């Protein structure tokens, strides 16, 4: 996306995102060379509620324009994984009695991007007809899931179609 898009008013951001994502250049991954088609849409953490609304509107508007979106909320997916693994109730039970750092490590192990999260994302990718993947819920899973770990592990799985990660904060990379 655009580096300064986090400074745009929400209405302008919506229009910018809609125009970019619905464009054939974006959908066909033109101009990327051999780069993985991952894009970060940063926003100020205090704008999370507004961004959630913008995301709903963006998905609906893109779908109406004929662009098929698969949105994966990392928080919802994490809960889904924990429930499928029958560990959700155990997590709820120990949350109050385990030190925070130990609890974070427990969640990190159960939701490791390479062994748990990315395979779950891959299953959703394989079972859905979509053109663009949206990843949301990044702030809700921090610090036990780090967005750069998710993106690093997704490189081999989600490189066929553009991926947009909605990121609360300033996303820096080297």
The percent range for helix content is: 40-55%
Q: Please tally the β strands and state the result.
A: 4
Number of helices: 9
Summed over residues and divided by their number, the pLDDT gives a mean of 90
Strand arrangement across the biggest beta sheet: 1-4-3-2
Sheet bearing the most strands, described?
4 strands, parallel
The value of Rg in angstroms is: 17 Å
Q: What overall form do the CA principal axes indicate?
A: globular
Structural class: alpha/beta
pLDDT < 50 runs, ≥5 residues: none
Portion of residues in beta strands equals 5-15%
Spatial gap, N to C terminus: 17 Å
Encode the helix/strand succession as letters: HHEHEHHHHEHHE
How does the SSE layout of this entry go?
Layout: H1 10-22, H2 24-27, E1 38-43, H3 48-64, E2 69-73, H4 74-84, H5 88-94, H6 100-110, H7 113-126, E3 132-136, H8 138-141, H9 147-154, E4 163-168
Parallel strand pairs: 1-4, 2-3, 3-4
Would you summarize the structure shown here?
The chain has helices at residues 10-22, 24-27, 48-64, 74-84, 88-94, 100-110, 113-126, 138-141, 147-154; strands at 38-43, 69-73, 132-136, 163-168. By secondary structure, the protein is of the alpha/beta class. It is globular.
Describe this structure in words.
- The chain is an alpha/beta fold.
- Helices cover 51% and strands 13% of the residues.
- It contains nine helices and four strands.
- It has helices at residues 10-22, 24-27, 48-64, 74-84, 88-94, 100-110, 113-126, 138-141, 147-154; strands at 38-43, 69-73, 132-136, 163-168.
- α1 (10-22) runs parallel beside α3, α4 packs across α7 and α7 crosses α9 (147-154).
- The chain is globular and about 50 Å long.
- The model has no long low-confidence stretch (mean pLDDT 90).
